[in-house]
């Protein structure tokens, strides 16, 4: 039980040194960035499809409808 203590709220929590805390924070930030990046990629794919559809419509209208 050396790695655990009771916090002011009365909960048993694992003791972490500063490096471990910082490492956990960095892992959390990394996961958040991964999620944001996936959303950006999804949006880019949607925009690519929209651009392709607009170009096809322009070509169709140029060729005489």
Automatic annotation (TrEMBL):
This is Uncharacterized protein.
């Amino acid at each position: 039980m050396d790695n655990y203590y009771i916090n002011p709220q009365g909960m048993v929590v694992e003791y972490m040194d500063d490096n471990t805390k910082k490492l956990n924070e960095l892992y959390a930030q990394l996961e958040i960035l991964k999620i944001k990046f996936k959303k950006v990629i999804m949006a880019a794919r949607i925009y690519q499809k929209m651009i392709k559809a607009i170009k096809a419509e322009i070509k169709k209208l140029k060729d005489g409808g």
